[in-house]
Amino acid sequence: GTDRATTLAQKLQALADQPSVAGVILRVEENYGVQTAYTAWDQDPGSLTKANAVASAIRSLIWQEFARYPQMEFLVLVGDDRVMPYYRGKDGAEGELSTIREYDYAQNHIAPNTTIGLALRQDVTLSDDFYASRQALQVRGQALYLPDKASGRLIETPEEINQTIDRFLQNSTLNRSGTLILSNNTIAGRLAGGQY
Length: 196
Known about the structure:
Oligomer: single chain
Number of strands: 8
């Protein structure tokens, strides 16, 4: 329960405090717009629009932080789709690629009752590029998000995330400073509460 969430929060702070990281933790759960978007999505986890509303509210906060800390070069998202939703974009595969769609993969490999399964069965792609992109490019009438910042995501159980952070802290190879670490402590309770 809360011990797992507390330990994860402490590990994230240790990561942010690492001199080669020089990170800032953005606690998205403190923002009313994010809270409201999460509440709506929780009521309808299959809704692409509501998942993207959460992502949009978080993205707005990210870019406010990047404006406050222009030296930041990296973005680290913490948690899987239930915690920090991937942006849901239309699967624009055409021609020969139209036979290889996310929907087909989901049918055979992703549980249908998960947020990812619900999304992929609606023929979308999932991406973190949305968070790391200042603005979208329009390509053939669709938004394309090309990252302006390097990004990554820490996923799996809180213990596995902690282990990943420990390995990094023991063998830190990052040569640049300035990392925005995105955290959601309220939702981290979901991870720690065994819903993982």
